[in-house]
Amino acid sequence: MKFQHGWAALPITLFILTALSTTFFGAGPWYAAAILLILGAHEFGHYFACRWHDVDCTLPYFLPAPILLTGTLGAVIKIREPFPSRAALFDIGVAGPIAGFVTLLPFLVAGILLSDVASIPNDPGTLILGEPLLFKALARFVHGPLPEGADIMIHPMGFAAWFGMLATALNLLPFGQLDGGHIAYAVFGRRATAMSVATLGIVMALAFAATSWIAMAVMLSAMAWFTGFRHPAPWDDVTPLSRGRLLVAALAVLIFIGCFTPVPITITW
Hints:
Number of strands: 6
Strand content: 5-15%
Radius of gyration: 19 Å
Strand order of the largest sheet: 1-2
Number of domains: 1
Shape: globular
Helix content: 55-70%
Largest sheet: 2 strands, antiparallel
Order of helices and strands: HHEEHEEHEHHHHHE
């Protein structure tokens, strides 16, 4: 039988450390509770999809980090054997973003409802968050058109949802072995390699336009250097996806569009 995880000390320890780091380095306990649920839902979406397809994987590893506002680098699981089929590859890749997205929605709504509208400060070092399309739509519905020089001062739960949307959009990039890379290969096969190359080019171009993309450009470049652009083929690389899975792939594209922002973070000087 698979999934003999043995002693789960490391995942539990990392979760506790991430709970502490998101509380004390992040935006507070409301943020910490929300982001742990969002990241946990994402990774357990992958985990239970692996269980469904009998693919060996680890428990989720949360990643604590002494980074102001976020307190974490996210969470990951490690898949320890090849994917048996394109269908399994697709299900495992798409389950995380969908589970995380569904979980962040109530925090997004509550966070926007609890947020205040105030004048944008002119102080140097002010952090301005880019607004994904979904955020823009809900904020306009709740607060209406904003006055000139005003913006939403986001509640910590809303910030957790924003961070969750950013993580979802980045994971859905059709690159390598990101979630989006799994989905792209399951749908397009070896043509996904060209999509990975194009994605890296676009991210590097974005890094020249917005410094908040530099870290992602470096990470994707490192992934391309160490693992290449080509996604490992599943054992069954012939059987195409069902029509239902293709519809879910279209849903994943819509989630990506709703969560994506071209300039995630701006700091005024």
